[in-house]
Amino acid sequence: MGVKRSLQSGGTMLGFLANSFIVLSTASNYWIRYSGGHSGLWQECNKGVCSNIPCDNTLAVTGACIVLAAGCGIMGLVMGLRLLCSEGYSRGQTTCAVFLISGLLLLIALTVYTVKNAWKDDVFYSWSYFLGWLALPFCIIAGFCFLLADMIMQSTDAISGFPVCL
């Protein structure tokens, strides 16, 4: 297995991990915890009773960006798997761009949520929130893995026309 294939495999694995973390983070209700309960993007639970959170602009932006990030991540994962399975298909730059867009959307979502809850007293961020932040570097590194693999493939194609004397 060459360097190009290793980078593509690594990018695909990192993309899978990032998507798993994004989906788990989005679906769970443990973004913040406070005395007597916890809250997520969609529901708030107080003393064991959960209810939907009223629509708030910052939560709407966070929810929209994180769902779009998950969608871009899944699309990037499918593109990465397609790159691994077929030799003639070369969309490494597109796959890179999709993962980087996913990372950017995730960064926007997490930053907006952080700013919204930064000044609240006795509110602590919980594991769902941290899974979102953990997914961010995985998305970015996955994108760069595909970019490097594409650069290696392009440089190999460019050099192949030159006579080489060893």
From TrEMBL:
The chain crosses the membrane at residues 12-32, 61-84, 96-115, 127-149. Its main location: membrane. InterPro entries: PMP-22/EMP/MP20-like, PMP22/EMP/MP20/Claudin, PMP22_EMP_MP20. Keywords: Membrane, Transmembrane, Transmembrane helix. The keyword Zinc does not apply. GO terms for cellular component: plasma membrane. Pfam families: PMP22_Claudin (PF00822). It is a multi-pass membrane protein. It is found in: Membrane. Belongs to the PMP-22/EMP/MP20 family. PANTHER family: CLAUDIN DOMAIN-CONTAINING PROTEIN 2, EPITHELIAL MEMBRANE PROTEIN-RELATED. This is Claudin domain-containing protein 2.
